[in-house]
Amino acid sequence: MLSRFVPCGPTVYFEAIEGSWIQVLHVAFVEKWQFGRDIIFTYGPWGFLYGGFHPATHLISVVVWTILSVIFWCAAWRSARLCLDNEWLAGLWFVAFGAVAGLTILMNMDARLLAWILLLLLLHFFTDDRPFSSVQVSLVISLGLLCFIKCSFFPAASLTILVIAADNVWRQRRFPWILIVFGASLLLFWGLAGQQLRSLAPFLDNSWRIGSGYTEAMSLTRATEIRDICLYLGATALLGAMAGYGAWRRLRWFGILPLVGLVFVGFTAFKSGYVRHDTHEAWATIQLLLGALTCQAIAWQLAQKKRWVLVSSFVPTLLILLLASVNLARHTESRLVPALMQTFGIRNLISPLALFHDRGRLLEADEGYLAYLRDRFPLPPIEGSVDAYPWNQYAIFAHGLRYHPRPVIHSYSAYTPELAELNAAHLRSTNAPDNILFDIRPIDNHYPALEDGSSWPELLTQYDIKSTNGPFLLLARSPTPRKYQKTLLTEAPISFGQTVVLSAFNDGPVWAEIEIDKSLLGTAISTLYKPPHLLLTVSIRDGREGSFRLIPGMARGGFLLSPLIHDRSSFVQLASRDGSSALANLRVDSVAISAATKFGETACYGSPTRIRLYRLEYPRQDL
């Protein structure tokens, strides 16, 4: 278990988005930035435990994961021995459960976090009848830490605690000690991460905003969506039937409580895998495989009296193993069975021993990678603090610059008006960074000016363009900030598929705010699954037409609609006193909103929506 959980092997580096945010989490812990105020993201103050390397946090990661490994070992082995009388079968189950929980291909460890919840449910409801045990207490305390690694884990952990507390009161007629322990552990690990108590409420509030906006903003769809979902839900239904039967046989009507917990865990895995239907699908099915092993342990308890239960329990487990293997091979270059078997290789098993003599090698590898990034992202001399738009903070760390983040550290995550405004207000404040490395790199075919769109007027007036060479524009805080104003041009309803002509307003930059409200059906579908994408189709003066992803929350906060600024060069022209003529062919003559459905419409959003167009006026720079 130490070889599976403790970061003792060579560090895996990621150059793209993942590499940036994981490094930010390490720096945030070292600098004691306040989550929910200074930094808002889908991870919490212990998020650096998710992966990556930083000299100042490596020892902490090793110590924490060593302790968690011991707790996991105790809980999993106790569950195995209480479920199975045969020690060898218990060992096989334990090894399989630990191997699946320990998979970290492409740095995803959601299955590992889920394992703690499954073990707690298994121990409390199916194996350990004691109302209070040291193993259960250790698992609950661990959950207090794990909740601050990844925010999406918080709801599942909290519901599990509430389900067990309800069982304490309803069935066992005992005080729900678990609520006290869980609450105290949350406060303990919040404080140990250097977080102030007054930051906890903003953290929970803004984490909710991040979570509630994720489905609309980050969803992806594949051509095989219906087939993939049917396979997943079919396998989940088999597990639900197995778990439900085991809960009924052991607890009768009280079995509804563990079933609620297991169903919600399956639901969160489904959402994580099929809202953003890419490599997340592979990890969702691996989490499902972990659930199948949990149900297998429940079934083996009943096998002493019902032999057919043991035989039938292998069917969903083998089907899910096949499904997880196929999905992992489809989305990554890895294979599930070889990846699991590698965990038993002698080099993997003795890898924790490297911690006693390989720190110098880790530091050398880290510096080598930073040198590679410095060559790939050369920067001019920079004095003062720095932020990066839309992401790629790794370039800042590689050059040893002083990183000073905006609240929502990656622009694609500022997908509600409130989150986008936090970033814009940060630029207006005296706490703004001295410099900004700026680029335009939208994800998922977003309209280029949509991500952190509310901040663009601030970038154009609070900062001066100092350098256009290299992979970024260098923006420096202006000693004489300029002011901008928005003048309303028109406000009108717009239905799906309707074209709005902008030609009469196109003698300067046009700012748009689009009110797109979800219907009651859309809210239900967003909660259970995901609504269809919305598209913004624009016709440009040079005759081209483009169709881009439109994020309702970002559109509501406002963005630059015309001209179509799609790269660093066009942004320079937008800021320049002499850039109007160069942008003439990029003016947007007309726009239309539609849904990515067969007929371009959807009942998930109210129609007509409302669009407001403004003239954006600001002093230009002499470049």
Structure explained in plain terms:
By secondary structure, the chain is α+β, with helices and mostly antiparallel strands. 51% of the residues lie in helices and 12% in strands. The chain contains 22 helices and 13 strands. It has a five-stranded mixed sheet with strand order 2-1-3-5-4. It has a four-stranded antiparallel sheet with strand order 6-13-8-11. β1, α17 and β2 form a beta-alpha-beta unit. α3 crosses α6 and α5 runs parallel beside α12 (279-302). The longest helix has 27 residues, at 225-251. The radius of gyration is 26 Å and the shape is globular. The mean pLDDT is 90.
Quick summary of this structure?
The chain is α+β, with helices and mostly antiparallel strands. The chain is 51% helix and 12% strand.
Could you name the ranges where pLDDT drops below 50 across 5 or more consecutive residues?
A: none
Structural class label: alpha+beta
**Total beta strand runs:** 13
Query: Nearest-angstrom radius of gyration?
Result: 26 Å
Average pLDDT figure: 90
Distance between the termini: 59 Å
Number of helices: 22
Shape: globular
Percent of residues in helices comes to 40-55%
Largest pleated sheet:
5 strands, mixed
Which band does the percent of strand residues land in? 5-15%
Strand order of the largest sheet: 2-1-3-5-4
